[in-house]
Amino acid sequence: MMYEFRVNELAQEFGVHRNTIRNWIKSGAIPAKEGPGRRYLMKWSDYQALCEKFGKTPKKPPTSTGAEEEEKQEITPIHLKPKTQTFYPDPSWADVCLTCGTCASACPIAGVDGMDPRKIVRMAALGMEEELIETDWVWKCTMCAKCEEACPMNVEIVQLIRKIRSLRPRDRVPGPIHKGVINCLERGNNLGIPKDDFIFLLEDLSEEMAEECCPGFKAPVDVRGARILVTVNSKEPFAEPDDMKFWWKIFYAAGESWTIPSEYWEGVNWGLFSGDDEAMKTIVGRIVDNLKRLNCEGLLLPE
Ligand code: SF4
Ligand code: SF4
Description:
It is a single chain. The chain is mostly helical. It folds into 3 domains: 2-74, Orthogonal Bundle (Arc Repressor Mutant, subunit A); 91-168, Orthogonal Bundle (Fumarate Reductase Iron-sulfur Protein, Chain B, domain 2); 177-300, no CATH class. It contains 16 helices and 6 strands. The protein has helices at 7-14, 18-27, 44-54, 66-74, 102-106, 117-125, 129-134, 137-140, 146-150, 157-166, 177-187, 195-212, 235-239, 244-254, 270-274, 277-293, and strands at 2-5, 32-34, 40-43, 228-230, 258-259, 298-300. Helix 1 (7-14) crosses helix 2 (18-27) and helix 11 packs parallel to helix 16. It is globular, with a radius of gyration of 24 Å. The two termini are 45 Å apart. Residues 97-103, 118, 121, 151-153, 155, 157 line the site of one iron/sulfur cluster. The site of one iron/sulfur cluster has 14 residues, from helix 9 and helix 10.
């Protein structure tokens, strides 16, 4: 016997975020398979085991008859057009969209130059791939995920928008983000600040802060065994260096153990925003390497 569920239903039932359920499915902690219409199926016994783990009473088992199963199998989804797998491995994902517009109501930039997440979802459902790759709407999105949070049907709008971005040829990615990704890969941070300049700035600011308010302060660089690894948004050393002192003063007052790495200290991963998964992985990997190299317990990201 199988248990059929939607991610948000199971999340509600067990009192966890729906991304937690998605992660459990991805990791195999919930042994479920994708079914039609963005539903999932798991064995009834696995559902019962999950309920037991959470101290919940399982729902009433489904009492399906052979006839009902047959009827179920006979239902075939009606597609307006054949779907492709460009945006999602399962092309039926967009069939669940109700065109309710809740996503557009939640989106802080809906209406800017005609941007509307509902339209993006509908265009994807209708197979308008070239138009989506060419539209600048997806580049206006801030990836805040408010649309997704509001969507009653759990459409993964942010993932869709990232996928569309990834399909734009890199030389036509608007704005500075692709250049920032290249800088980060080649020079270690989005704005290409050289290591010596960065270290000099940290020393200079440290002296200022020691004089102003925090006697003996020195920004800790590459300190092995520090508790927190602190990454930096490169726009701060580049344009607003005094902003870094806000964190430093808190650390100083709290007697915190922390350090900044001398290399690969960039904390803003523009690969995430440009839809460049490979670059994103490389940049994250460098931060993880720093965590291991310096044996830090925690990580502070500026964004
Ligand atoms: S909120 Fe969800 S179901 Fe409603 S229009 Fe947006 S994507 Fe479709
Ligand atoms: S993730 Fe993008 S489309 Fe969704 S609400 Fe935020 S800005 Fe709007």
